[in-house]
Amino acid sequence: MHTRSTTAPAARSSAAGATPTTRSLGYRLSAFVDRHVLAVFTTPAVAFILLTMAFPVVFTIYLSLTHWVGGLTRAPEFVGLENFIRLLTDDPRFWGATFRTLALTAGAVAAQTVIGVAIAVLLHRHFVLSGLIRSVILLPMIATPVAVALVWRLMFHPQLGVLNDILTRMGLPPSDWLADPQLALFLVGLVDTWEWAPLIALITLAGLTALPEDPFEAAQLDGANGWQRFWHVTLPMVRPIVVVAVVFRLIEALKTFDLILVMTNGGPGFETETLNIYVYNIAFQYQQLGYAAALLIVFFLLVLLISSSVLRLRRPKDS
Amino acid sequence: MISYKSRAIKSAVAIVATAALLTGCSGAPQSAAEDPAEATGAFDWKRYDGESIRFVAGLQPWQAAVEPLIPEFEELTGITVETEALPEDQFRQRLQVELTSGSSDIDVFMSSVQQDGARFASAGWYEDLTPYIENSSLTSPDYNFDDFSESVLEGHTFDDTLSALPIQLEVQMLFYRKDLLEAAGFDGPPQTLDELEEIAKATTNPAENIYGWAARGKRAAAVTQLTSFLLNHGAEYMKDGEAAFDSPEGVEAIEQYGQLIRDYGPSGSTNNGWEELLALFQSGGLAQWADNSGQAAALRDPAQTSFADQVGYAAMPAGPEGDAQTFFGWAAAMSSSSEKKGPAWLFLQWLTSPETVQALQEIGIPGGRQSIEFGEDVPAEFVEAFQTALSTAQPQLPQVQSVPEVRDVIGDTIVASIQGDDVAKAVETAVSEFDRIVSTESR
User: Fold this and answer.
1) Residues 110..139 of B with a Cβ closer than 8 Å to A: which?
2) CA-based, 20 to 30 A from B257: which of A88, A225, B185, B343?
3) Please, are residues A96 and A177 in contact by the beta-carbon 8 Å criterion?
4) A contacts of B431 (beta carbons < 8 Å)
5) CB distance B429–A92 less than 8 Å?
6) What are the pLDDT digits (tens) for A214-272?
7) Does pTM top 0.80 for this prediction?
8) What is the pLDDT of residue A72?
9) ipTM of this complex
10) Contacts of A181 (CB under 8 A, 6+ apart)
11) Are strands B325-334 and B108-111 parallel, antiparallel or unpaired?
12) CB of B305 within 8 A of CB of B284?
């Protein structure tokens, strides 16, 4: 490709060079396009990427080195690495939020993976209404997260919620649910699992459908029971695709925002304040845009680290 | 090959740079608009006939009462007002995001000066109102600006710049159920916090879902309600520019605030703001509730509160070290990024005009004009409680720039207290955070 597009116009232009007086503007333009065909066709895409991706990244890095309060009506003040130093040495809320982000992500995604794969394996068989059940099970995933969060918040409401109503009817003591500091983060993870386990199920199911039949038949002939077949045949074969699903979910779960903002807004106290909620507060409640940018960079590195180390799992063990 | 690639990159960069330059040029400021502060001629409400402005408000009693009146303004001036009213949390978030972005879409907005004033002013988001008020071509001769009390205006002035005008003044007030108190053998509201606890104890009946006491428990929201407890225990938020609520009295006050809610309040109190508590009070679940007086409008309305005639109003009871009262205020301001400042000022002027303030105070929403009295339908008890409290009221929030941040920090101690955690330890952490925040804001 490269050689053709570069040598051909070169040859032509040297031929045209013999009669320079006959060149029209149109011809010169088309010769220019011919000579620079790669540049001409890639420029719009490159410009788009520079403007929409490279610029924000570079600007965020710059902002992270400034103290900037009050938005566009004021200029940022350069402070060097001060934001990062404060973040690492003098910000207990940051560490709390980091820990909660990791705990929520690990807990929720682990639960989603187990439940999701289990659902996929169950739905892989054909039985009565299996098509209908497959569709129904995807419903939570299709709902808008904010609506999901609102409905759950209402169900968890200590006085008006249906859950406490059920508990008291059964003669059990009511719970504070989202107002209980020990419970709040767990419940957020629970709702996240309810909503997103179907995604893992969906992807895994697609993977299962694509698997060849032979190994299963061989295992059955060898006398493997259902559990052995699942553990030694199905799981290794479907593993690469499950890992992809897990990485999707990990990245999504790390940046869970709408669900938490609506359900608890980080409360009670700071018990459900994850990094994203914290950054949001810093940027839009406290207006410290520079510090928020520094937090975002650390957050980005965290996401990168986690997703790349999980992707390593995708390689089969023996290679 | 390498040279070809580098050439391609060069031309790409050149094209991008040119494009960026062109966009930059077209975005250059255009100073064609007339400066409304220099308008001349006689005052005329119709001066900006046909214009339209955007007004962003929080869902507040004031906003609910003024919105139905806005068509009168539109008829008077020919200006179309596009009103956007959002629940308080969303309102604050929306406002900050838009103002931070420097957007010119907002012309007039509600603003709580205790909460946002110093910060918004330092960010340059408020338009200076004095030139408009002093320009007789833009301000009606009937406006009577001197009617606003000086001390109230002082709270709306930052760096000698009048940044907003008061629209809704509130004091912290005790709302109580006369019927429930009477049934428990009390013939009036509590005079002290000890009496308040007695009544709370006697009226709490979880089996009937009735709680003797409630106050806000949601982190930042609760802070305005804690202030009177703090002052009445002889403590304060700040002294000489440093956090001072870690005194024994301060810890005691925060402990009491949480203990009352823990022992006599509804479950799940750490998620309760005024919205939740208003709903709970109106459903008949509370015997006593302290919150800002703006709630009274809903409590007095039989259409919203079925037992409206049984609601009592009182100033906050005294504590061991005093009888301090607290106030909070909402104001209206003009955005400095607005491109329609003339029409925006006419609207702001109308919102704070004697007629509009009169119409609202008539139904019990006080607006900060001295000459205006409450209407006859407003219960005398409410008027008395309001005026008693206002006469000695102190601001509900510490006077710093980073109020939202500081509120979160103080609010966390309230949450700890409601949950029965170690309050002294929580306060210690909060105080050092408070000092760190305040020391970094001065630059």
Assistant:
1) 119, 122-125
2) B185
3) no
4) none
5) yes
6) 888 888 888 888 888 888 888 888 888 998 899 889 988 988 999 999 999 888 889 99
7) no
8) 63
9) 0.72
10) A268, A269, A271, B270, B415, B419
11) antiparallel
12) no
